[in-house]
From TrEMBL:
It is found in: Cell membrane. It is a multi-pass membrane protein. This is Cobalamin biosynthesis protein CobD. It comes from the Bacteria. Pathway: Cofactor biosynthesis; adenosylcobalamin biosynthesis. InterPro entries: Cobalamin_biosynth_CobD/CbiB. One of its GO terms (molecular function) is ABC-type vitamin B12 transporter activity. The gene is cobD. The lineage of its organism: Bacteria, Pseudomonadati, Pseudomonadota, Betaproteobacteria, Burkholderiales. The chain crosses the membrane at residues 51-71, 78-97, 151-173, 286-305. Converts cobyric acid to cobinamide by the addition of aminopropanol on the F carboxylic group. The keyword Membrane applies. Belongs to the CobD/CbiB family. It comes from Noviherbaspirillum denitrificans.
Length: 311
């Protein structure tokens, strides 16, 4: 029950305050990681250097988070609990998903393609300068579904496993995967550790997220899409999440997208009509309801375990 209460507290702080406008810890971590990469990602032995870089970037900060929780608990039990909740707040991104994605839907409804393209370019790596409304809506829905797992549910899972330090470990590892986990000349070797670690840490959360999307949406379609489409997607974890989410919403995602001036044909996901502005709101609703479901399930599990232990 304590884990559920602290989790609800962290989510509640995020919902009320949103992401920090200044001095966001993850932004600072990104700059730190960039500095490490520029220094180490050169010459021979890049796989080994990438492993060392990952350890330098992640392990000391995770250890610091664990020390802060332990020290806070020694000073005052409530202080220790508060540190866990604050660490979750710094790691989770539920409110930021809403704040970044729903304005895209509004811009599309207003017929303001220029603004919609600009807003979408801030959250995806694809080129949006020539994107039309369905392409922008598709990009936004894909981002919501995938980042629902990366920024919310993976963080909640590891918080349930290991408290604030678990959330920090996952979020830092996930951030490094987003920065270094590319299959290109620059990062193919150096980013191996970042990509593989994120695959491992995200394996269970991604499948729980996909299951949750299926339960809360069109369950039959979500399950069918998950089973038939997930394996074709490049990421072993994004595949289940996005295929199940697209099926749950009964929309079509994937397909052509422009990256660095070239059209990339990605596997199709989901089933139904192409994504629209209204589907962005539906995708956000699915993510928000999934968060509520997780909080309720964890609280119920804590209550059940507590009752059993006192029986």
């Amino acid at each position: 029950m304590l884990t559920a209460l602290l989790m609800a507290a962290g989510v509640g702080i995020d919902w009320v305050l949103g992401e920090p406008r200044k001095w966001h810890p993850l932004v600072g971590f990104g700059r730190f990681a960039n500095a490490i990469e520029r220094r180490l990602n050169r010459g021979a032995g890049r796989t080994g250097k990438g492993i060392a870089a990952w350890m330098i970037a992640v392990l000391p900060l995770t250890a610091l988070a664990a020390w802060a929780c332990a020290f806070g608990a020694e000073v005052n039990t409530m202080a220790g609990w508060a540190i866990h909740a604050v660490l979750l707040y710094f790691c989770i991104g539920l409110r930021s998903l809403r704040d970044h994605l729903l304005p895209i839907a509004q811009a599309l409804r207003d017929g303001n393609l220029v603004q919609a393209r600009e807003l979408t370019s801030r959250i995806v790596s694809r080129d949006t300068r020539r994107s039309n409304e369905p392409e922008l809506a598709k990009a936004a829905v894909e981002s919501l579904l995938e980042n629902g797992n990366d920024a919310v549910f993976g963080t909640l899972f590891w918080f349930a496993v290991a408290g604030g330090p678990g959330a920090v470990l996952f979020r830092l590892a996930n951030t490094l995967d987003a920065m270094w986990g590319y299959r290109n000349e620059r990062f193919n070797d150096f980013g191996w550790m970042a990509a593989r670690t994120d695959d491992v840490l995200n394996w269970i959360p991604a499948r729980l997220t996909a299951l949750s999307y299926a339960i809360l949406g069109d369950t039959r379609c979500a399950w069918a899409c998950w089973q038939s489409q997930a394996a074709s997607w490049g990421s072993p974890n994004a595949g289940p999440v996005m295929s199940a989410g697209a099926g749950a919403l009964h929309v079509s995602l994937g397909g052509a997208a422009e990256y660095d001036g070239e059209i990339e044909e990605r596997p199709l996901l989901g089933k139904g009509s192409p994504a629209s502005a209204e589907d962005i709101g539906r995708a956000w609703s699915l993510v928000a309801r999934t968060c509520i479901l997780w909080l309720v399930v964890i609280a119920a599990a804590g209550f059940f375990i507590e009752r059993i232990s006192h029986a």
